[in-house]
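Data card: per-record layout.
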Amino acid sequence: MPRHPLIVGTGRARHQSVSDGKPWPLGATLAGEGVNFAVYSGTATAVEICLFADDGHTELERLELPCLTHGVWHGYVSGLRAGQLYGLRVHGPHDPAGGLRFNPAKLLLDPYALCIDRTVRGDTGQFGYQTDHEDEDLSLDDTDNGAEAPKARVVCTRFDWGDDQPPRRPPQDTVYYELHVRGFTQGMPGVPAELQGTYAGLASPAAIAHLQSLGVTSVELLPVQAFIDDNHLIDKGLSNYWGYNTVAFLAPEPRYGGANPVEEFKGMVKALHAAGLEVILDVVYNHTGEGNHLGPTLSLKGIDNRTYYRLEEQPRFFTDFTGTGNTIDTSSPPALRLVLDSLRYWVLEMHVDGFRFDLATALGRDASGRFDHRSPFFCAIAQDPVLSTVKLIAEPWDLGPNGYQVGGFPCGWQEWNGRYRDAMRDYWRNTDSSLPAFAACLCGSADMLAPQRRAPWSSVNFITVHDGFTLNDLVSYNDRHNEANGEDNQDGESHNRSWNCGVEGPAPDQPEVTELRERQMRNYLTSLFCSHGVPLLLAGDEFARTQGGNNNGYCQDNAISWVDWSLAEKNAAQLGFVRALVSLRKELGVLRLKSWSWDTADDQPGSAVHWFSVWGLPMTDPEWEDPQVRCVAALFESETEPQAVLLLLNATSEESLFTLPHEEPARRWIARVDTRSASMPPDDEAVMSGEHFNLIPHSMAVLTATTQEHT
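The structure for this 711-residue chain is written out next.
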């Protein structure tokens, strides 16, 4: 393909000199009196660096990288400084049918860009083919989009970290709090208006004070790597609010930052660390925002399509394990290197404490497409001295064959346990035969994890997360209400395992419905914080945030998805209840199980949890098998912990009188939680072993006592 002529806008071309430079590190690196550029493309015929003026539109000069070393094009440009805007034009065969999609008319983002100059929004100029052509992507669009395309910015990585240290919370002591940088701080009292919706807003004293008052240990941020607003959302007047469509793996999303989003992000991490809070990033390495064969050409697709993406036997088409049109091929060394380099950058340069991997099953597939816990991705992380020491959390599914892999990840990994979510919801909505799964999950999913010698903290337990109903909506709606998404309410999950307590939506004039809903929320929250494993709380659930029944708010950058801070005062009782639960969990070490208790005789995990019927007797097999049984007691105790915990559980619509388990000598049990009320019972309310405790319908209680070993 012929080269495009040098484009010089109104800015003056500087005619920089280019020397050989080095093939590492990849990306644009300040070195001496200039910048070293290195770009991997094993199939390109030439790579040009395009320099732009500060206006972000005027192309000043194109410089061809002079050297090719092991697939890396590189060169050193003297005279460049931090802040320089640039993009890539990559030359090579235009053969979409063969998987090659080179088109130097399209300005590309450097995969190793550390900062980009604007929010990336879908645009017709981004497509490498003529969108109205009968041959679709087999055609070529040679319209230059350089003026409007996003640009990378050369970054000086120096930052005054002072005495910043990672909090290094032990996994069993962790409490995750999932939040959206913009949605959490937008409208938050005490956060200056100009900082709301930003990294700096999350670093503000008001935001940190709320997090500290809850007692959570680790904030898990929805995607903050630069992402794209897709064309179809823009056409509807919507945006990619959640951010699960990454276009630059090393660059912070600019819409949450000011003039220097890199520095603002670092300042946020430093402030959160100073408050004792870990920063966990929700990262999307399973796919990019370039979509399928009909998607835009933004970066990897135009740099080396066959290397970075999984392609079908007919390489015109992309393998789609993700439901987004493409899948990054982590069995390919250059693609794997990009992912690992990005992860190390966020740890070493940005000081984050761990990652939650979106659709992590896709990352763990080998060259044949089969999921394998010994895949190149898992092996590379396991031996990495940096990445193996941070928190690693998998979302354990994708859309490929055998995609649901909960419990199947390597030792050292945590997993979002969807089985836990489903079991809790089924039990508390009074579903037949729900008790065995509920009991297993309350015990840290030992049946799934212990045989593999994976620790109890491998299970990240949750009732709600960003994807799905909020806790309030879970008890207020039977059906999704996603009309605002513009897809005729066809998007989002249709099987929510929710129960509206008899009325669909708000019921302000029915106090009995409101009371039941509030009690159900307390049941869910108490179960969450009294389970083995690691709890995750969704931002706003502590004071009953609602999305009006929308269970797929991915495109709603507005009041539907933002945290409504007026509810913190309106539902102050629930907020206080959550704070007390988090504090109680920290007090009771028997709930924060570090490892299983093993019976060495048969190499099976011994249980620190004993189950009793409503009559105070050990549960029998017929009772476990009875689909109607949902009134049970669970006793948590350990020889190493001074306090035992007794949970009394009644998921039925009938009042239940429990007999406390008979013990000799009889223990004095103190009621710490009774979900009939948001107020914690007074400490002087005690009951002895063998005595009775009454639970109203749809409620539970938490009792504590000194363990037998410590009496």
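Known properties of this structure: The CA atoms of residues 215 and 321 lie 38 Å apart. Residues 597-710 form a domain with the Immunoglobulin-like fold (CATH 2.60.40.1180).

See the next section for split statistics.
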